[in-house]
Amino acid sequence: MTSALLTDLYQLTMLQAYWYERMEETAVFELFVRQFPKERNFLVAAGLEQGLEYLENLAFGDEECQFLAQSGFFEPGFIEYLKNFRFTGDVDAMPEGTIFFPNEPILRVTAPLPQAQLIETRLINLLQFQTLIASKAARCALAAPGKMLVDFGLRRAHGFEAGLLAARASYLAGFNGTSNVLAGMRFEIPIFGTMAHSYIMAHDDEATAFREFAKTQPSNVVLLIDTYDTLKAADKVIALAKEGIKIKAVRIDSGNLEELALAVRRKLDQAGFPEIKIFASGDLDEYVLQHFLDRSTPIDGFGVGTKLTTSSDAPYLNSAYKLQEYAGLPRRKVSPGKQTWPGRKQVYRYHDQNGLFLKDVLTTQGDLLDGTPLLQPVMRGGKRLAPPEPLSIIRTRCAAQLNSLPEALKSLNITASYPVEISPALARLAAETDRRLGLK
Questions:
Q1: Residue 11: partners with Cβ closer than 8 Å, 6 or more residues away
Q2: How many of the other CB atoms lie within 10 Å of CB of 435?
Q3: Are 231 and 225 in contact (CB under 8 A)?
């Protein structure tokens, strides 16, 4: 899924027009989220690694050029131009795992106008999705601190790429691993999983199924106990444990998880096996996790699938990638409800005496303030400035940022705002731009 044709047609029709008009001066575009879903008090930046990989490898192959030539939209000279097309621009971005707020650019592209324009669709596609999932996963991590969290969402993901990138995004935001084996190989994420109900049902006896599975996975004995009668299955697990089989955990996937977990925990403890963990799955999200934690439900870990991988309560972001400067002049969109701040920008973050987020200031790139600048140089001349960051570093960054959130922003049920101030320098630039454009 690395084709240059993974874009919208209008990107290519504009590209031909720019080529025809020889509009190739430097352009600056910024990617940001205008308004957050009401269910989100913050978002977690993610997907930069895949965005940079796309930019480094962007090229039109022979088959792609042939398809475009036959489409009827493009002239031969433009097709020849595409054969040598590469991204040679600069990128500044918030490091993955950074928490951000509305209208703050998480990525800035500075490149010749045709290059900066063409990449819009795929950059939004890559960064929007992982940001969406990482933000959902971060809420789960906040709702269930200290609990084992595993991404179970591949089978419900909207395609294989979504499943892979959801595993990556959830891991960097605080999950412990994934059931997605390819994600484990590609991103070095811990993988988890044991059996399905079909394995139990394929055996004539549930206890036999448990025993045979334990023989084949002696270091990973996690037994699914809700295929028939969960409490009777727990008794069978206890019997196996008394035979000396080392059982790591039991998993409950249906029924009243709270009641069943309480009853199973009681059985295991009374039988002398407090070390056997309880793992739960089945239609879970951060709200359910918070309910379990609030009620001290004895569940040690959770498999979160459908509602995580689809971000079901907020399945899209109001993302935008807008032109902020061209040919040395600031540009600005002023459509009602979709106004943009002009020029190249920087975001500065301030913390209070306890290290918690206090406010952000959105300003011009050249307005040096005493806060922490969030946008960092990551690509120059179409080449990365550093190797890809290990996910372990991104996870650590994200955890630190979540720890620095004010309590109100961590709430799952209360919409809280965070101050993002517009600097005097940026306000002046906007006013100057409006006058130049005849808007005032």
A1: 117, 118, 120, 121
A2: 10
A3: no
Q: Which of 318, 377, 376 is nearest to 348 (CA)?
A: 376
Domains of the chain: 9-133+315-436 (3.20.140.10), 146-309 (3.20.20.70)
> pTM value?
0.96
| Cα radius of gyration rounded to whole Å, the chain | 26
Question: Which SS3 state, helix, strand or coil, does residue 84 take?
Answer: coil
Residue 179: name the closest of 140, 149, 150 by CA. 150
Contact predicate 151/311, CB 8 Å: no
Cα–Cα distance, 131 to 175 (Å, whole number): 14
H or E stretch including 420? strand 420-422
Q: How far apart are CA 134 and CA 379, in angstroms?
A: 23
Q: Give the bridge partners for 414, in sequence order.
A: none
CA distance 185 to 188: 5
pLDDT value of residue 336: 86
Enumerate long-range contacts of 49-52, CB under 8 Å, 24 or more apart: 49/96, 49/388, 49/389, 50/126, 50/130, 50/165, 51/91, 51/93, 51/107, 51/122, 51/123, 51/126, 51/127, 52/91, 52/378, 52/379, 52/384, 52/388
Q: Strands across the sheet with 357-364, in order?
A: 372-373, 345-351, 357-364, 420-422
Looking at residue 404, its pLDDT comes to 98
Q: Give which of 134, 131, 126, 174 is closest to 150, Cα–Cα.
A: 174
Over the chain (440 residues), what is each successive 10-residue block's mean pLDDT?
92 98 98 94 98 97 97 97 98 98 98 98 98 98 98 96 98 98 98 96 97 96 97 98 97 97 98 98 97 97 97 96 97 90 98 98 96 98 97 98 97 93 97 90
Alpha-carbon distances of 321 from 12, 76, 430, rounded to whole Å: 16, 29, 18
Q: Are 133 and 46 in contact (CB under 8 A)?
A: yes
Task: Write down the residue that tokens 């500044």 correspond to.
Answer: 92
**Residue 170 near residue 308, CB atoms below 8 Å:** yes
| Burial of 259 from C-beta contacts in 10 A (0-12 / 13-18 / 19+) | exposed
Q: Residues with Cβ < 8 Å from 195, sequence gap 6 or more?
A: 213, 222, 223, 224
